[in-house]
Amino acid sequence: MSRKEKIVARFLSKPKDFRYEELVVLLRIFGYEEINTGKTSGSGRAFVRAQSGHIIRLHRPHPENVMRMYQIELILEELKKQNLI
């Protein structure tokens, strides 16, 4: 199993310790890139898929880097809508 397959499988298992850095890697696998939304964006983040123009917006977790379960479910739903998973 490749590193990409492992991170996708880990995400699909909805772990409680899925980190923001892992999410960035996961979304890159599906063609998303994090876009800079300006100096005042704070913890707001946006990921855009150039191929379709689809945008996923979320808040970067802090002070820890662990994603919240509602964020994981939201991202999973968005990836399913785009027929990526």
- The level of helicity is 25-40%
Question: Given the structure, what is the number of helices?
Answer: 3
User: What is the overall pLDDT average?
Assistant: 89
The assigned structural class equals alpha+beta
Query: What is the N-to-C succession of helices and strands?
Result: HHEEEH
- The count of strands amounts to 3
CA-atom Rg in angstroms = 12 Å
Strand content: 15-25%
Shape: globular
Which strand order does the major sheet show? 1-2-3
Instruction: Return residue spans where pLDDT drops below 50 for at least 5 consecutive residues.
Output: none
Biggest sheet overview: 3 strands, antiparallel
Q: N- to C-terminal separation?
A: 17 Å
What can be said about this structure in brief?
The chain is of the alpha+beta class.
Walkthrough of the structure:
There is one protein chain. This protein is α+β, with helices and mostly antiparallel strands and 85 residues long. 39% of the residues lie in helices and 19% in strands. It is built from three helices and three strands, in the order ααβββα. The protein has helices at 3-12, 20-29, 69-81, and strands spanning 32-35, 44-49, 54-59. The chain has a three-stranded antiparallel beta sheet, covered by helices on one side. A hairpin with an 8-residue loop joins strand 1 and strand 2 (44-49). The longest helix is centred in the C-terminal third of the chain and has 13 residues, at 69-81. The model has no long low-confidence stretch (mean pLDDT 89).
